[in-house]
Design a protein that fits this description.
heterodimer; A: 285 residues; alpha/beta; six-stranded mixed sheet; four-stranded antiparallel sheet; B: 369 residues; two-stranded antiparallel sheet; 12 helices
Chain lengths: 285, 369
C-alpha cells in the first residue's frame, strides 16, 4: 500500500469564539491515496468546502494536522504555504476563477511562473494540455468570450500545468449544463485513471459517483455513513437530469412546489419561463 | 505576474485614464505654481539682470535692489569714476512706489535716468520712444495691455502725473513692474538732491570685477560694491523668498491630493479584484508578489499622470503667456526632477493601504461563488 498523498488527522475548524463559535468541520480524519478519486458529499452547509480549503492549505485548521506528500502543512509558516499550493496542488473552482485580463494560454501558464522551470519550460506542457483539452482554437481568447465548458477546461489545464500530486475540485460541474458537466467529469476521470493524479471532489452531482473510488459523507462537519436511503431523486425540469434532493443546492419554488436543478444554468433557464418546462413535467423517481 | 499586473491595469481603461488625468492635474498644478513662482522671481530681477554692469555700487548695508532703499552721495560716483580700471559709471535713482494708471493701482520699481542716459534705459521698446523731457515715462507693454494706458496717456506716481511716451518689453512683473522716469522728477518725488541710489560700474577690459568691487569697498567709505553676478543672486534669492512659503503649501496640498487619488484608485482596483487576488493566492502566489504587483500598478498610474504633467509643462505652459501676458512662467528641469521625486513618494504612499488590504485577502475566499 503506497503512502497516502494526503494524510489529514483529527481536523477541526471552528469560526467565532465562545458561545458564538460554529464548528464547521469536526474531528475529521482522511487519507487520500495516489491516483484515487475521492468524492466528498453532504448536505448544504455540512462543511465540505471548509474541509477542501483546509486540505488545500487555504485555511488553517483550528485543530489537527494535514500532511501533503510528506510535508506537515499545519506546522509550516504562512510564507511557505504558497509553494505547496503552487507545486503540490491544483485547484478547480465552481466559478472557474480564470483571470479576466489574461488569455486562455496565459491563464494556463500563470501558475507555471512558480514552478522551478518557469514559464519557458512549461510551454510544452501547456501546448499539450491545450491540445488534450481541445482548446487550440481558443488559445488567445479572453475568458469572457468562452463558454462555461471551455472555461472549466482552461481551469483544469491550469490546475495541471505544474503537474501537482493532487487536484482539489469544488463543484466543478456546478455551473455547467448537464452535457458539459458530463464532459468535465470524464476529463477528471481520465486524469486520475490515465495520469495518476489524486482527485478530491466536492459535488452534489450524483453522476460523479460513477467515477469515484470512494465517497465520503460529511454532515454537520463530521464524516459518517450516508443514510440507508442513499438518494431522494428528482428530475431537473429543464434538462431532465437526475438530481439528489438530499444534497442539491440549486433549487427553486414555483407554484407551491420545489424543483431541483443540476446547475445554475438550468435554474436560470427555468426562472426565465417556468411554464415552458412544466407543460410536460418529468416524473420523479 | 508582471503580465497580469500590466494587463489587469489596462483592462479597466476608463479607470486608468481617469485616474492618470486626476494625478496629472495635481502635478500640473504643482508645476504651474512653481513655474509662476520661478517666472515671477526672474522677472522681478529683470532690470538688474539686463543691465549687466561689472559692478553694482550701493549704500553700505544694502546688497540688492528688490524692495531696497539706497542713497549714495554724488561725489562718491565721481571718486569711483576716477579709479583705475573703471571705464564708466552710470548712476540711477530708484524707489518702490504705487503707480495709478486708469483704474488700476500697482507696485512698481521706478528708475530715474539722467538726461541722455543710454546705458540704464529700457533695453527694448515695442512702441513710442525713450524719455527725453520732464514728466515723461516709459512703462511695460504688458502693463499697457492690462490697464489700457497707451502712449500719450497719463499715469500718476506719488503726486506727479507723467505722460507715457514709450512701451518697453520684458519689464513687466505682476509683483513689481519697472517704470522709467527722468532723474530730476524722481529727485523731486524723493525730495533729495546730490544723491544716487545705485551706480552701474563698467570696468576697463581686463579688469577683474571681483578685485574692482573690493577696491571700491576699501577706498570709498560707506558704500557696498558687488559684482553683477553676486548682486543678481542676492536679488533673486530675496525675490524667491517672497513666494516660497506659498509654493511649499501648494506643493504639499497638490501632493496630498495626488496621494489620495493614487491611493483611492489602487484601493478601488484592489477592492474590485479581491476575488481575483484570492484566486492568485490560492494558485500559490505569495503575498509579497501581490504586494509588489499593487505597488507597480500604483507606480504605473503615477508615471502616466506625471508624464502627462511633464508634456503639459513642456508643450502647453510656454504658450500660456500668449493668452495671459501678465503671467511670466518658467519651467525648470530642477522643478520637474523634484516633482518626479514627489511622484515616486506619491506612488509608494498611494499603494500602502491597498497593499495592506492585499495582505488580508483570504485565499479560501476563491472557493466562494
Amino acid at each position: 500500500m503506497p503512502e497516502p498523498i494526503i494524510k489529514a488527522r483529527n481536523l477541526t475548524k471552528s469560526f467565532g469564539s465562545d458561545h458564538t463559535a460554529v464548528i464547521a468541520v469536526n474531528n475529521v480524519t482522511i487519507d487520500i491515496q495516489p491516483g484515487e478519486v475521492v468524492l466528498i458529499m453532504g448536505p448544504s452547509g455540512s462543511g465540505k468546502t471548509t474541509l477542501l480549503s483546509m486540505l488545500g492549505g487555504l485555511l488553517n485548521p483550528s485543530k489537527g494536522t494535514i500532511e501533503i506528500d510528506g510535508t506537515n502543512i499545519t506546522t509550516l509558516k504562512e510564507s511557505a504555504l504558497p509553494e505547496i499550493r503552487a507545486l503540490k496542488l491544483g485547484f478547480i473552482f465552481q466559478a472557474f476563477n480564470l483571470l479576466d485580463a489574461l488569455t486562455v494560454e496565459e491563464n494556463i501558464l500563470f501558475p507555471a511562473q512558480l514552478h522551478p522551470g518557469g514559464i519557458n519550460q512549461a510551454q510544452d506542457r501547456a501546448d499539450a494540455l491545450i491540445n488534450q483539452l481541445n482548446l487550440e482554437k481558443r488559445r488567445h481568447a479572453l475568458p469572457q468570450t468562452l463558454s462555461g465548458g471551455e472555461k472549466q477546461r482552461v481551469a483544469i489545464a491550469r490546475a495541471l500545468i505544474n503537474e501537482p500530486k493532487v487536484i482539489l475540485a469544488d463543484e466543478p460541474t456546478g455551473n455547467l449544463d448537464s452535457q458539459t458537466g458530463q464532459e468535465v467529469m470524464m476529463i477528471l476521470h481520465d486524469i486520475a485513471r490515465e495520469q495518476g493524479y489524486s482527485v478530491v471532489l466536492v459535488t452534489h452531482d450524483p453522476r460523479v459517483e460513477d467515477i469515484a473510488d470512494r465517497i465520503l459523507w460529511l454532515e454537520d462537519g463530521k464524516l459518517g455513513d450516508r443514510k440507508q436511503e442513499l438518494h431522494k431523486w428528482s428530475r431537473d425540469p429543464v434538462c431532465g437530469m437526475r438530481v439528489d434532493e438530499w444534497t442539491a443546492d440549486i433549487k427553486a419554488d414555483y407554484d407551491n412546489k420545489q424543483y431541483y436543478f443540476c446547475s445554475e444554468k438550468c435554474l436560470h433557464q427555468f426562472n426565465a419561463d417556468p411554464d415552458q418546462y412544466l407543460k410536460q413535467p418529468r416524473s420523479s423517481n | 505576474m508582471f503580465k497580469w499586473t500590466w494587463k489587469s491595469l489596462f483592462s479597466q481603461r476608463g479607470t486608468l485614464v481617469g485616474s492618470a488625468l486626476g494625478i496629472a492635474c495635481t502635478f500640473i498644478l504643482v508645476i504651474f505654481f512653481d513655474s509662476v513662482w520661478r517666472g515671477e522671481s526672474l522677472q522681478v530681477v529683470s532690470y538688474p539682470s539686463h543691465m549687466k554692469p561689472n559692478v553694482w555700487v550701493m549704500q553700505s548695508g544694502v546688497g540688492n535692489m528688490h524692495m531696497a532703499m539706497s542713497f549714495i552721495w554724488d561725489w562718491k560716483a565721481d571718486k569711483i569714476a576716477k579709479m583705475p580700471g573703471v571705464k564708466r559709471v552710470t548712476p540711477i535713482l530708484y524707489m518702490n512706489s504705487v503707480v495709478s494708471a486708469a483704474h488700476t493701482r500697482m507696485f512698481a520699481f521706478i528708475v530715474g535716468l539722467l538726461p541722455g542716459d543710454k546705458r540704464a534705459e529700457p533695453w527694448a521698446l515695442t512702441a513710442g520712444r525713450h524719455i527725453k523731457k520732464p514728466l515723461e515715462t516709459v512703462i511695460p507693454d504688458v502693463l499697457s495691455t492690462i490697464t489700457n494706458v497707451n502712449v500719450g496717456d497719463q499715469l500718476h506716481i506719488a503726486d506727479k502725473s507723467f505722460t507715457v511716451v514709450g512701451l518697453s518689453s520684458g519689464t513687466y512683473s505682476s509683483a513689481n513692474s519697472v517704470l522709467f522716469v527722468p532723474f530730476s522728477d524722481l529727485e523731486k518725488i524723493l525730495s533729495s538732491t546730490g544723491t544716487y541710489s545705485y551706480l552701474l560700474v563698467d570696468a576697463e577690459e581686463g579688469t577683474d570685477p571681483d578685485s574692482l568691487a573690493k577696491r571700491i569697498r576699501d577706498e570709498v567709505e560707506k558704500v557696498n560694491a558687488l559684482t553683477h553676478d553676486q548682486f543678481v543672486r542676492n536679488d533673486l534669492s530675496l525675490a524667491k523668498q517672497m513666494g516660497v512659503d506659498i509654493i511649499i503649501i501648494m506643493t504639499a496640498i497638490c501632493s496630498t491630493l495626488a496621494v489620495l487619488i493614487v491611493g483611492f484608485t489602487s484601493y478601488s482596483l484592489v477592492m474590485r479584484r479581491r476575488r481575483e487576488l484570492a484566486i492568485i493566492k490560492a494558485l500559490g502566489m505569495g503575498s509579497m508578489n501581490i504586494l509588489i504587483s499593487v505597488i507597480i500598478q500604483s507606480g504605473i498610474l503615477t508615471l502616466f499622470g506625471f508624464t502627462i504633467a511633464v508634456l503639459f509643462a513642456l508643450f502647453v505652459i510656454p504658450y500660456i503667456p500668449l493668452i495671459l501676458p501678465q503671467l511670466t512662467l518658467a519651467v525648470s528641469f530642477t522643478s520637474l526632477t523634484q516633482i518626479g521625486l514627489i511622484a515616486l513618494v506619491v506612488a509608494i504612499l498611494g499603494a500602502l493601504i491597498p497593499a495592506w488590504l492585499v495582505s488580508r485577502v483570504e485565499p479560501a475566499t476563491a472557493f466562494h461563488v
